[in-house]
UniProtKB/TrEMBL annotation:
It comes from Sphingomonas kaistensis. It comes from the Bacteria. The lineage of its organism: Bacteria, Pseudomonadati, Pseudomonadota, Alphaproteobacteria, Sphingomonadales. This is GAF domain-containing protein.
């Protein structure tokens, strides 16, 4: 167990650290597979790592439909970060919800047992989760196994927080040169969550037509402008690294008094980096005031 704990604590600092930690957890619990996954709202996962490649000819493990409402592993969570769920919680969810689609996949994969913990949850539905997936031969989780998992999960939670802090520190380093420029710039990760910002950008969160925070996600105050920004950010992040778009420009802060908007907004895709958990800065938002007509 101690090796698994140390492997998670070292994971943010090693090239293959998270997968190494998952393999250690698999060994410590005598389980077929362990999993670390995470993402934002909706069924799509931003990252989904396993301790080993499972024989999966039908692609169940990477099928986004299997991470929706029928997935009793994800949906039995109590909504409390660092809580533990296991077979008793799975059975309760199955008894109250239709889960045939996920049950069939679990049968194909022979992973009917296990335990899990949402290491981190944010108000907009984002999560980072750790799970042990056990085969019929492994059997259900014993109280001792759940205790081992809980101890390792505590270290995994710390490791995720370290990874986030490192991403924020690197983001602040990127903005250091703008400290005296008066530039209103924010850095966001690939989920649209705030990584770092210049001091002058903080005032935008107090502006009536400016920015808002939903959890850590940056939003525009105007819903229509925010929807357009979400789509533009997705195009930038999904585009080809070499030939795709790297900058989006628009006006925001429209009102009856300022129909042309109050700010020019520039969204820039930053150079890609190794970022397994999606916490590094990947977009820069810069706002510049427009002169009143």
């Amino acid at each position: 167990m101690r090796e698994a704990e140390l492997a998670f604590l070292n994971a943010p600092f090693e090239a293959d650290g998270w997968r190494t930690a998952l393999r250690r957890l698999s060994y410590a619990t005598g389980s077929a597979v362990t999993q670390l996954c995470g993402g934002g709202m909706g069924p799509t996962l931003s990252f989904n790592f396993f301790s080993e490649e499972r024989h999966d000819p039908r692609g169940h493990l990477v099928n986004p439909q299997l991470y929706g409402p029928e997935n009793w592993r994800i949906n039995c969570s109590t909504g409390v970060a660092r809580s533990i769920q296991f077979e008793r919680h799975y059975a309760a969810y199955r008894s109250a919800n239709p889960t045939d689609f996920y049950d069939d996949a679990v049968s194909d994969l022979d992973l009917p047992f296990g335990c899990q913990s949402p290491l981190m949850l944010d108000p907009d539905g984002g999560l980072v989760g750790l799970a042990v997936l056990r085969s019929s031969r492994d059997g259900p989780c014993s109280p001792d196994l759940i205790d081992v998992f809980a101890r390792v999960a505590r270290q995994a939670h710390r490791a995720v927080r370290v990874e986030i802090a490192l991403g924020q520190a690197r983001g602040e380093d990127m903005l250091a040169g703008l400290a005296d420029s008066g530039e209103m710039t924010l850095l966001l990760d690939r989920h649209g969550r705030l990584v770092a910002m210049t001091e002058t950008a903080e005032a935008m969160f107090d502006a009536p037509c400016g920015l808002r925070l939903a959890g850590l996600a940056v939003r525009l105050a105007d819903p229509q402008e925010d929807c357009a920004l979400r789509k533009a950010m997705a195009r930038l992040l999904d585009g080809d690294v070499i030939g795709g778009p790297v900058v989006h420009e628009c006006r925001i802060g429209r009102s009856a008094e300022r129909p042309a908007g109050m700010w020019q907004l520039f969204v820039t895709r930053l150079p890609a980096k190794r970022d397994l958990l999606g916490v590094e800065a990947q977009l820069a938002l810069t706002l510049r005031p427009l002169l009143a007509p």
